[in-house]
Amino acid sequence: MKSDLPLNKPKATLKNIAEASGVSVATVSFVLSGKGNISKVMSDKVKSIAAELGYVRPGKGRSGQMQKKTLAILTYINKEWAYAWNIITPIINAIEQNNTGRGYATVIIPVQDSSENSKIYQSIIDAGVCAVYSIHVANATLFQSLEEANIPVLVINSNELNNTVCTVCSDDFEGAYEGTKFLISRGHEHILYIDYFREGQNTVISDRFIGFKKAIQESFQREPVNHITTDLFDVEMLRSELMIHLHKPVKPTAIFAHDDRLAEIIFYLIRNEGLNIPEDISIIAPGDVLDYSNPMTPQITTMSIQTTVLGNISTEKMFNLMDKPAEDIHGLKVSQKLVDRGSVRDIG
After folding, report:
1. Do 219 and 283 belong together in one domain?
2. How many domains does the chain fold into?
3. H-type alpha helices, the chain
4. pTM reported for the whole predicted model
5. Are residue 300 and residue 182 in the same domain, yes or no?
6. d(Cα 12, Cα 66) in Å, to the nearest integer?
7. What is the pLDDT of residue 32?
8. Given this model, what pLDDT does residue 12 score?
9. Domain coverage including residue 133
């Protein structure tokens, strides 16, 4: 996403009211929302400065009349992220249902990698939203501008900005750890870990491998020895590296794939070599990117990302942020759930 010219933001923000008043942003928030135990002298001072700066509470127009209550969802809508719609859609559905139940409308604002910050920002302002959910989109510059405009942001399923914004994410570390433990409990010791290059997704790549690594270390008191990092779109490269491992003297009996999108490719590569899953080799992956209701989809055992739970928890977190802006940055993790579809054989 492009970081372009300074954004056209409202001048009156909690931050500059706090600076002018000599107090914290949290104190300003408490005063303007009528919450907290703030002295009358300080409360009057903050309100006076806010009025001088022309501050308008989120959800109100310049006239002070309530506008339609609307929350925005930012999400990538392009071919690069099309594979993830089986994950994104249930999150959006849960958020929209919960928003509606609280009397709020929901608008989806699509984002492209080439989108300019100023245009995204203006789309949000034009929609009259009072808060923004951001699914997978991690844009520190844009989010800072929104926060300064008194529009809270909650990032869903991206760990790239954990220290700067509030997040609700699937627990990739725990999921990989538990998935590997499941393989080990079925007698698998020689496990091949396969991941792939994902631009801008360093945290999820790291978290999943570290979870896998911890399970191996705890169970066998050694470091993982079988690890492939491949190019998802170079199938021949993956096939070549996979065959090297499958023809070693000590062959892997199971594969932990970075996600079930990659696992599907591995599934067919193994089948093309005349091997069967799980009879010859087992496979597990975090998911669920694939549509398992389709009878043509390989039935892969996954550590399922609990998308509806993510949406429900995100809604609760968002309304807490709108009611009382966080003084500290909080990251919530949602556990993944094992879904056994029969791709892991018990060799114990």
Report:
1. yes
2. 3
3. 14-21, 25-33, 40-53, 85-101, 117-126, 140-148, 172-185, 202-220, 235-246, 260-272, 307-323
4. 0.81
5. yes
6. 18
7. 72
8. 66
9. 70-170+307-334
Structure tokens at 126: 């034009």
pLDDT of residue 65: 41
Q: Which two tokens stand for residue 275?
A: 């091997």
Predicted local distance difference test score (pLDDT) of residue 124: 93
Residue 339 lies in a domain: no
Residue in the structure block whose two tokens are 């990251």: 331
Which residues contact residue 84 at a Cβ distance below 8 angstroms, ignoring those fewer than 6 apart?
76, 136, 289
Long-range Cβ pairs for the range 12-21 (8 Å, 24+): 12/50, 12/53, 12/54, 12/55, 12/56, 13/55, 13/148, 13/149, 13/150, 14/148, 14/150, 14/325, 15/148, 16/53, 17/46, 17/49, 17/50, 17/53, 17/55, 20/49, 20/53, 21/45, 21/46, 21/49
Mean pLDDT comparison of 45-54, 100-109, 139-148, highest-scoring range: 100-109
Please check whether residues 163 and 311 belong to one and the same domain: yes
Cα(298)–Cα(46) distance, integer angstroms: 61
The interaxial angle of helices 235-246 and 260-272, nearest 10 deg, is 70
Residue 290 lies in a domain: yes
Residue 56 confidence (pLDDT): 62
Beta strands 282-287 and 301-304 are parallel
Q: Are 132 and 71 in contact (CB under 8 A)?
A: yes
Cα distance between residue 239 and residue 232, in whole Å: 11
Q: Are strands 131-135 and 153-156 parallel, antiparallel or unpaired?
A: parallel
Give me 237's structure tokens. Answer: 């490269």
The amino acid occupying position 298 is P
Task: Residue 206: give its domain's CATH number.
Answer: 3.40.50.2300
List the structure tokens of 96: 């929209």
